[in-house]
Amino acid sequence: MGARTLLVIAVLGLWLAACGGGEAGTTTTAAGLPAASEMSLTPTGIGQVDFGTPPEETIAEFTVAVGGPSENYDWTADPIFGECPGAFTRGVTWGSLVALFSDDGAGNQEFFAWTYGYDPESGTSGADSRELGLRTLEGIGLGSTRAELRAAYGERLIEEEDLSIEVWGFTIDPDQTQYLQGLLSGPSDDARVVVIESVPGCQTRQ
Question: What pTM does this model have?
């Protein structure tokens, strides 16, 4: 899991850099609006916006909550995320929050995944550059510690590591069809969440 997540984050950065010609959205630098508290991170969407919601409706709802997108990129058929649902993929960012959309090639477009913690503008992980302060229903977000993860999820939490590439990962309820996974900054109890994302998303090809 951890290695897959790391690869997805890496190719996400490369894709966003390569899509510099995409349409840029309105940049908002102020801290997250109070409505951001309604945008809980869940395995099935964000807040009241479920996966399957059309792109423009999703973007409009998020804009009401936290302001306009930092970047709004064009659709691409390039398989740079690996194997993604649909024929085309699009990313829209709010700082380190990235919403991913799919298009099946027949005009059916929908919100299908999100990742939070990687900021394509700076190329760094772990910083909440728009100060959105998004959290799961159990109160876990960027900066939460491993100890807080354990307290919040108990036996629902699975911790994994790959010391060969220095990846410390976690999954929450991986026995479910839709679940959450993420990365920690290190192996200690006070290591902090630097990325969290929904699964399934795009699968890195082996």
Answer: 0.82
